[in-house]
Amino acid sequence: MSIPKEKLLWMYETMVKSRYYEELLVEAYAEGKKPVFNIGAGPIPGEMHLSNGQEPAAVGICAHLTKDDTVTSPHRPHHHAIAKGVDLKKMTAEIFGKVTGLGKGKGGHMHLFDPEVKFSCGGIVGAGIPHASGAALAAKQKGKDWVAVAFIGEGAANAGAFHETLNMAALWKLPLIVVVENNDWGISVPKSASTAISSNDKRAAGYENTAGYYVEDNDPLEMYRVSQQAVERARRGEGPSIIEIETYRFLGHFQGDPELYREKDEVPGLLQKDPINRLKEQLFRDGVSSEEIEQLENKAKGEVDTAFQFARESSYPLPEAALEDVFC
Predict the structure, then answer these.
(1) Which homologous superfamily is 5-315 in?
(2) pLDDT tens-digit profile of 187-228?
(3) For 24-45, what is each residue's pLDDT tens digit?
(4) Helix 55-62, helix 220-235: angle, nearest 10
(5) Cβ partners under 8 Å of residue 44, min gap 6
(6) Dihedral over alpha carbons 225, 230, 232, 236 (to 10 degrees)
(7) What are the domain boundaries of the chain?
């Protein structure tokens, strides 16, 4: 299956945007935290979980989605949000805790929510799977061909919510796709020490009406092809799918993670297989010029720079607004 040029260019631009976005987050998050690391210091409060290296999972499937399709994300959400089309200015302002943010600065980076493009981030491991199934159920009841996608880490596939949700989604043939981003680490625990199955796509065999797909080596092109099959299948009303992609986490579980659990040469080895560079090489082979590539990169980085400027120049919410728009 050939991939249209415009889709490949969009995927590359979006991956560059996501990578550059998180590179600037690394810098901004470090402000005020050195020489002693303090998660409460600096312009960005709280913990920070980044997805550098995992971009293929997001662009591969979001290339097939529309604004009417739902996406839920865990605590490592930025590549998903950017690929789904979340407002970059408002998202950045939210991460900075500013009043112009998606949640007026109340949610932060682990609780992003943009109803304009049906995107939400639950933060808690596995929490987005039931939410996505609810959106899938709503689509089916309304007679729409909408799809719901839940991104999770491989560790979340061992949570009860994964199996409970897949059971009901299979029973009701819901248009749900669960994308398992297997970066091999559940915090500091390797997958081999926590999961009694080689890949979570094989769990699909335990549920009728459910398809399983596996993407090797963080390949954005294969992720695109596999996702097309899963999305088309969901839109036809044939039931849920599980996609596991072998991906790589270039950074620690969180910013400030000493990563003592990793081998010294693990990250350098992974960086040699950077999916952005590999996709760029593919574009060159397909005849895309270096000038066209540079234009895409400049456009992506320009949007990110504008978003960070907007966030930094926005105001913090006033103390008396702390309980506004809060529902209990």
Answers:
(1) Thiamin diphosphate (ThDP)-binding fold, Pyr/PP domains (3.40.50.970)
(2) 888 888 898 999 999 999 999 999 999 999 999 999 999 999
(3) 999 999 999 887 788 888 899 8
(4) 40
(5) 25, 28, 29, 31, 95, 96, 97, 109
(6) 160
(7) 5-315
